[in-house]
Amino acid sequence: MTDEVEDVLFAEPHIRVAAKGRVKGENLYVAYGQTAAGRYLVVFFVRKHRTAALPISARDVTRSERRYYEKQRKVR
What we know:
With 76 residues, this protein is of the alpha+beta class.
């Protein structure tokens, strides 16, 4: 699944803050996106510095998350 997580994070996912971190500047983010193979994933990660991300967890999106992601893509 590591390659799929990278697919999502490098393919212009929809990202939002999920929770404030205990360490300044290390909030928990959630990214919604699609892999190169077409699988839809939600990836939870901590942004480290400006260019690095530390993935915490990833899973398939739910139906409601898929609708949310599609709606956000149309807004762009």
